[in-house]
Amino acid sequence: MSKNELLQLVEDSVQMKEFPKFKAGDTITVTYKIKEGEKERQQKYQGVVLQRVGSGPTETFTVRKISGNVGVERIFPIASPFIEEIVVNKVGVVRRARIFYFRNLRGKKARIKEKRM
Amino acid sequence: MSGLLGKKIGMTSIYDENGKNIPCTVIEAGPCVVTQVRTKEKDGYDAIQLAFEDRKEKHTNKAMKGHFAKAKTSPKRYVAEFSRFEEKKQHGDILDVNVFIEGEYIDVVGTSKGKGFQGVVKRYNFKGVNDATHGQHNRMRAPGSIGASSYPSRVFKGMRMAGRMGGNRVKLINLQVMKIIPEKNLLVVKGAVPGPNNSLVIIERWS
User: Fold this and answer.
1) pLDDT for B60-102, tens place per residue?
2) By the CB < 8 Å criterion, does A58 face chain B?
3) Residue range A34-43: average pLDDT?
4) CA-CA distances (angstroms) from residue B122 to A39, A42, A57?
5) Distance from CA of B57 to the nearest CA of A (A)
6) Do A99 and A25 meet the contact criterion of CB atoms below 8 Å apart?
7) Long-range contacts of B130-139 (CB under 8 A, 24+ apart)
8) Which chain B residues touch A8 with a CB distance below 8 Å?
9) Going by C-beta distance under 8 Å and a sequence separation of 6 or more, which residues neighbour residue A78?
10) Which residues does residue B24 pair with via DSSP β-bridges, in sequence order?
11) Residue B173 vs residue B206, higher pLDDT
12) Where are the alpha helices (DSSP H) in chain A?
């Protein structure tokens, strides 16, 4: 279903930054701003992209990383003004658009084949 | 109240100046034509009748055709009465989305989506039986007792039971107007609005 033109008009008014292309299976580093009281600082979050959902300014993506033996997932809205930069570190070879099976893999199994550039 | 008739376009999200994601509903509000002016002398109260959205002439009956011809406009689909506009409106005036101000709070009336025949858990937020064990089986979403035996020995009127849900007139109050796009008659309202996309909504303004 194509989006209504009038809805599109409102969505076009949302400012979107340009990011490099990435998909599920890629390893990316997201640099984002966080506010602590008055101060603002940047933080980096590196992990594997599990999925991209939605379109336009409502699109979000999920990044999973293992932090001290605990799996952490963060969902970022792609139009969020807090995202400073996205760097694609590795391009993975996966067959699906949403790699939820990746959550059940641990250790050596939790590796994704890298695409040779 | 003053206000306009409109059409729900759909939902999206925008960001405010703090970078906060705000879920919004886009409404096409107006343009509406004043098709009748009611006055205290003649009708006992002051109001104006607004009409919205074109309708094919062949689908309009003669009486309505005459009514719209008087206001020198094409046949419309919906009419509703409003009052208390800031300026006096004349028969045949066209009102657009500029009757609203960005940032103000409005009420929106719509017809909620029909849900069909639903049980009490969905319809009235009953808890159901919270346990699958302790002797329960196949009654996880049952309503429980609907009345006692010796007294009152009947079921009270208005007892909440399963039945048709949705399709009711629902009014949401105090929705903030986030943005107005006058060229396209668009109103961007914070939060959700009752009804499916492309359905009629009545936007009321009390301030």
Assistant:
1) 888 888 888 888 888 888 888 888 777 777 787 888 888 888 8
2) yes
3) 86
4) 45, 44, 32
5) 26
6) yes
7) none
8) none
9) A16, A19, A52, A57, A59, A60, A61
10) B12, B190
11) B173
12) 5-12
